[in-house]
Amino acid sequence: MTVLDRIAAYAAELTELRHDFHAHPELGFEETRTAGIVAEKLKGWGIEVHPGIGGTGVVGVLQGRSGEGRRIALRADMDALPMDERTNLPYRSRNEGRFHGCGHDGHTTMLLGAARYLAETRDFDGTAIFVFQPAEEGLGGARAMIADKLFERFPCDEIYGLHNAPDLPRNQISVFPGPAMAGADFFDIRIQGRGAHGAMPHLANDPVIIATTIAQALQSVASRNVDPLKSVVVSITQIHAGSAYNVIPDEAVLAGTVRAFDDSVRELVRRRIKEISAGIASAYGAEAEVDIRDIFTVLENDETPVQAVADVARDVVGAERLSTSPRPKMASEDFADMLKAVPGAYFNLGMATDVPVHNPGYLFDDDILPVGASMFARIVETRSASSNS
Ligand SMILES: [Zn+2]
Ligand SMILES: [Zn+2]
């Protein structure tokens, strides 16, 4: 019986579990219900459980048959997004303003599926380490686990993670070495003007005009400052000002995100955002306060673990469903911080539904649950043998 066959035998239970997580989504660092179910399931299968790592994170440790061999970590994220779900699924979100719109409910379920299989079969040497991470969606869950000494308490030789991919065909695995996902900053620009009656602009220093001028000018960073051969995104995603039709507000705030693969580009963009904001504000006799924060590290896959994922993919989904050509994404992923600490690889798994992640109508394809679980399980079986070191 193949791994996939064995895990497929309890696919219905995995689907039921995923629907339960989906109906009860929790935001980053608030995943107490989810983490509680994860811990209880792991315990039930005889896996050693360490809750409360980096806040609401959970780590499971399972020894293989022999005491020797390598330590292979697998990671899944558990958090949902602060948005409403717009689907008519019977198991749609019961928590208003909370939605598993990135499929982390599916990732958590896949890792549980792999943990159950590995606990039941123990057909591996070394140690399997299951890392259930909180707060992936821009809140720094990976960094919180690392700061809580994740890799000192649970040393591992390699680490692997995956994401569902609505933009790939079902069961297609995409993995390649090198930079795969962009690094990201989040920024806030606070413009302090002077408020007045909407009919008396000469008595005001209108922060709305300054904010819209800065918003336009920031688009020149990508087009005029950064080397055209280097990828960069500067997106303003929030504009906040005012509360009445006849009041010029005191203050306006712009917020957004920067994406790039190159640290020197990130540094240049940070400097230009500050210079442009300060220069324009000053030209209008106002001040702009700029706060730019490094949120995501560039995600870089290591060569040998990528080969390992590719070998497992040939086995689990077939060579015809494996893509190793580079397809870097401007999106970011905080698993990048774990990959900075430990060699490993992050791969994408395609599914039949094609609504993009973070869309209110996003749908997860339950048919990929056993496939993702099998990928994780086979990675441990193939990489934990001591001959791989
Ligand atoms: Zn997401
Ligand atoms: Zn995600």
Concise summary:
The chain is α/β, with parallel strands linked by helices and 389 residues long. It contains 11 helices and 16 strands. An 8-stranded mixed beta sheet has the order 1-2-4-3-5-16-6-15, with helices on both faces. A 4-stranded antiparallel beta sheet has the order 10-12-8-13, covered by helices on one side. Strands 7-14 form a two-stranded antiparallel ribbon.
Topology:
Blueprint: H1 3-8, H2 11-23, H3 32-44, E1 48-53, E2 57-63, E3 71-77, H4 104-121, E4 127-133, H5 141-147, H6 150-153, E5 158-165, E6 173-174, E7 178-181, E8 183-192, E9 196-197, H7 207-225, E10 232-241, E11 247-248, E12 251-260, H8 263-283, E13 287-296, E14 299-301, H9 303-316, E15 322-323, H10 335-341, E16 344-350, H11 369-383
Parallel strand pairs: 3-4, 3-5, 5-16, 6-15
Antiparallel strand pairs: 1-2, 2-4, 6-16, 7-14, 8-12, 8-13, 9-11, 10-12
Helix pairs in contact: 2-4, 4-11, 7-8, 9-11
One zinc ion is lined by residues 102, 104, 136, 163.
Keywords for this structure?
389 residues; alpha/beta; eight-stranded mixed sheet; four-stranded antiparallel sheet; 11 helices; 25% strand; elongated; binds zinc ion
